[in-house]
Write the C-alpha cells for this entry.
Amino acid sequence: MQRIANLLVCKDDKVLLLKKPRRNWYVAPGGKMEMGESIFIAAIREFTEETNAVPLQPHLKGIYTMVIEENGKHLDEWMLFTFVANDIEGLPYEETTEGILEWHSVEDLHHLPMAEGDRTNLLFAVQGKGMQYGTFVYTPEFSLISETIQQSTEGE
C-alpha cells in the first residue's frame, strides 16, 4: 500500500495550493513517503521540495484511505496523511515540474476543481477541530463512489 503525505498552509485566510497539469485539479503539496520515513518528515520534505518553502509548526489533521474501484473490484489503495501549518518560511516557487503554486481564499476550496475527497479533507484541515479519519472510494476516473468520515476532537 502506497503512503502519501500532504501539507496545506493556511495563512491570513488563504491556502497555498498546487494546480496539477494533468487534470488542472488543485491539491495540497505532497507526495509519496520514502521507505522508513515518518509521516511528519515526509510531509515537510514533500512540501519543501514542491514549494521551495518550509512549513512552520505543521500538525496532523487527517488520516485517510483512498480506494480505486471498478465494478465492485478493488484496483488500488493508498493511505493519505494530511497536515496543516499556519505559516511558511521562504518564498514559494510560482511554478515547478509538479504544477503551478497559487494562493487561494479558504472559501475557494468549496468550488475549485479537485478530487471530492481532497475537498473534504482540505476543508477540515483549515476549519475543523481535532482529527478527521475517512475512506474515499473512487472510480478509475476519480469520480467519488462513496465516503465514510469520522472525527475526534482534542481531549477526547
Observations:
- The chain is about 15% helix and 50% strand.
